Amino acid sequence: MKVLIAVDGSTFSAAAAKFVRGLPAEKPIEATLVTVINPPDVALSTSTEMWYPQYLEHQQQFAEEALEGIAQTFNDTDDLVDRKVLHGHIGHAIIDHADQIGADLIVVGAKGHSAVGRILLGSVSDYVATHAACSVVVIRPREEHDDSIRHKVSIAFDGTPPAQSALDDFAQFDWSSLEQIQVITASPKLEVFREDILSSIMEEGARRRTEALRTAKAGAEQLQSRGWNVIHKSVEAEHIGEGILEAADAHGSDLVVIGDAGRGTITRLLLGSTSRYVLRHAKQSVWIVRHRNES
Description:
- The protein has eight helices and ten strands.
- It is of the alpha/beta class.
- It is elongated.
């Protein structure tokens, strides 16, 4: 498995490396550590010639030191580690290099938080997660346990091909050390304001709840066959993403896994509304699995 880890010298990129190191893969991981120098646009003049070369030299040195520090995370593993310093727009450079090496996964840290405590994405992690052709994990370290061993995981599953891809990709690893895995199916809550259709809406709601529970159970059974501790849950919510996150929060999950469509032949597809909501509002780390159409 080829994994690109975005490095910027922060604790977030260190957590990203720890996550990759802790992936229970059967074979050694081919990890490429990437940091990007994005020099400011300046007009060349006698003044800038005095400091600009030194500035670039300092940035290069900082980048190399950051890569060296992160590379030590893999010192006592069999994983293969490469390092690369790139130049240009940070998000573009990360995605382009992931394409060049045929990365299966990009792991990047998130930064910043809102006034109400939810951790929001930085511009780089948002750009990469939204535009990358391959799967992306956005890491949000949690104070109580920011190591790479995830205790609980929630997987969104609705039976669609992207959701099945998420389940299949997750099952490539041996998660027997996890405390528990939760498979969630969320369905939209039906609102009714007319008495004459109330009974019909109630019947439709009951049908949807039954189908959602059946779908969640079917997804959980796929993972239970591996001998893991897996539970299933169906929820109703005004927004599917909100329902997924509320269930993940109640479960105490460290990681949320969700599938999303891949890219077209001409342009990259942006995230769907549910994946985007989960990515931008989750307290947890988020693993977005890109589904690739075979046709």
